[in-house]
Amino acid sequence: MLENDPLKNVLYIDLSKRKFWIENREDLFEKYLGGAGVAVNLLHELCPKNCDALAPENPIIFAVGPLTGMFPLASKTVAMFKSPHTGNLGESHCGGRSAIAIRMAGYGAIAIIGGSETPVYLSIYNSKVHFRDASSLWGMQNVFTVGRIIREKEPGAGLRTIMRIGGAGEKLINYACVTTETYRHFGRLGLGAVFGSKKLKAILISGKRSIKVSDKKRYTKVYDDIYKKAVESSLMKKYHDYGTASNVIPLNELGGLPTINLQKSRFEDAEEISGENLIKNYLGRRIACSHCPVGCIHIAALREPYEDEPYFYKTTFVSYDYEPIYALGSMLGLSNAESLLKLMDTVEIFGLDAMSTGVILAWATEAMEKNLISEKETLGLKLSWGASLPYIEAVKNIIYQPNDFYKALAKGVEYASSIYGGKDFALSFGGNEMAGYHTGPGAHIGLLIGMRHSHLDNAGYSLDQKILTKEKITPEQLAEKLILEEEWRQILTSLVICLFARGIYSPDIVSQALAIMGYDLSFEDMQNVGREIYKKKYQFKVREGFSLDRLRLPKRVFEIPSPAGKISEEFVNDAIKYVKKYLEK
Length: 585
Hints:
This protein is an alpha+beta fold. The chain folds into 3 domains: about 5-205, Aldehyde Ferredoxin Oxidoreductase,  A, domain 1; about 260-420, Aldehyde Ferredoxin Oxidoreductase Protein, subunit A, domain 2, CATH 1.10.569; about 440-585, Aldehyde Ferredoxin Oxidoreductase Protein, subunit A, domain 3 (Orthogonal Bundle). Strand 1 and strand 2 form a beta hairpin. Helix 7 (about 215-230) runs antiparallel to helix 21 (about 505-515), helix 12 (about 335-350) runs parallel beside helix 15 (about 390-400) and helix 18 (about 440-450) packs parallel to helix 24 (about 570-585). The longest helix is centred in the last third of the chain and has 21 residues, at about 475-495. The protein starts with 8 loop residues before the first strand and ends with a helix.
């Protein structure tokens, strides 16, 4: 590490005692780099075994890496905690300004322990932490309003981040997210509920400093190489022009777009909710995370007349990406772009994870079709494919939980289906709702064995498209490729690189960038570190009751053909057995 690098500093904040302190944890950052590697070690240290995920003892850890603020696209923050949604490892990544704000405030990680008796928000300015009374913000459902009030109240601007929760987090909904900078999120696995359980409404982080490198000439060359690859890459151009929504049409044509709760893998109205259509008719602007030259964040401008003033219009800005489009669009049969954007906006306002919300509503719709539930449970709402207004009302009911059915939906599709039935079409993987890929066994095995049960753990969907449609592969070979990809991604998420840039940050580029920051690591060294981080995550999960032997894959996955054909249950089970043997040897 560089001598003057504040990355080694960990800020500890105790909400129960209203105190904070800083520790030098060079031991962690030297060995595990930052991000996911440091965070999982802090989680092992700070999270008591078998603690309630919504108890004060559950820590919240934010961590960044040595390349943050120094190189393009090293723009993510890793959050780690025990997940109230799955009961084991909670890991979520967020862009925006969160990473650069933490780094410039002088920290590589922030660990929050304990819980406040009264609502509070934190203001972190360099080496000072202020505990602010949040009583007037508590009960405020709209995350946008919370952010605006804090933004106006607190001094400073620019490279600062405001993380906050809305109604979902306060209501301790298992899949509540934390919103930053209005359009970015710690989305998956319920960090928002952990905030809510601690009576923590928001965190503002602001700092200003510079980090000196010893070899400026070499630094400039490596920086320019990465920057040039980012702006000239055809993949990055696609993300800039259309965002991840550009995946809608290719996946639909491939037959890998989950539709109406994966009863189909193609959506006849995919073009209406595609990135191309949203660009043409709704794009308001593009924005980028700090230190990112790509600008993949696309914001739709939804223009609507006021109900009581038809000659006056209001404009609502809605951030969209592929995953919310899949979960709240094709999964629910929504074929109208405006209706989709309105539903997405409702989910955003309350601070819910869009993927979990869409999959849960899709299960509820099919459960109603199959008479497992009725309008008695939904309180008069007729959930049906393509009808956006009932879905919007259902989202509100998930927040306010007026009866046992909506309380069950607030705990996720795994729990709701255990009460009302329909497990065969409850699309849950390791307790977390599925991502938007039905491309073959790689996608689904990847979700099951991934440490976060996320499509970003190991890109199984990408392996499906590269391998399974072209050549035969054994379960063991596929599992091995998933493991190797996941282990390398532990390095990328420890640095913390945006995974869209994984093709740019090759092992050679990573090694060069790390050398400038004072690390001497060969590719083999990095592989060993990635493997150790991967296994540490698995050890935490097992410690908290997770078992690869008890994984459940919904029958629906085996019923609907993928681009690689029908998925074999035996193939999936053999792959999982291989992963288990590898992790436990």
